[in-house]
Predict the 3D structure of the following.
Amino acid sequence: MNRGESHHGRRYIWTLIGIVLVVVYLFPVFWMVSTSLKVDPDIYANPPKLIPNPLGWENYREAVFDNPPVLKAIRSSLIISVGTMVLTLLLAAPAAYALARLRLRGGALVILLLLVSQILPGIVIAGPLFVLFSRIDLVNSYPGLILADVSITLPFAVIILRPFFLTVPMELEAAALVDGSTRFGAFWRIVLPLVRPGLITVSVFAFLLTWGEFVFGLSLTTKEEVQPITVALNTFIGQYGTKWNLLMAVATTVAIPIVAVFVGLQRFIVGGLTAGSIKE
């Protein structure tokens, strides 16, 4: 076997390994969609049916479209996710810019604290937030959930955005200042457009992290009016059994925005994370 054949052989092996890993990773998603389309007798069939027949489209009507609590929870998740995304951008962009441009005392310590905060799970801060929000009347409210989610998304956003600001030449801002622009004007008109890939990356991840968040939604809300869809999924898990086909119908509906965002903005997400990780 010559060198070229050996190279092609290794490439085919790695391709096969990649295909197997993708199939293993996507099988739970396939099983979720398949179960969402099964009628009740097929759920517990032995051996299990991979392809449902007949297709139980009625599961979606019963679990989602004719279910006002679920529709209300989806609306709540959308409000919370968009609100968190916007607030994260408003806070992360100037914070990351300041860490990249200004010689702040303790700047390195701030970055270290941001990194450490990524280690803490949400459940650790859910209790203190509940006590605090109870005193200032933010429990069972959209602002309370948005602020709680921002505590998770903001450190990540600042860490991702800071390298992007470091790559913008300071001469561009200096030229804008010479032309009579203010520091904020230069930041808004010159710098932000140049870091758009980073802003898109941060926006997408802030939205998706909030869309799938469960701990804050469960611990900071008791009213259905503001509970996100991740909490509403619990209603399909009963004491005497779980309605798996209805549960999976809602789960599939909830997963659609995640898939759509990744498919539509994939090049921005991958490019933003790659650029942000190597540009220092």
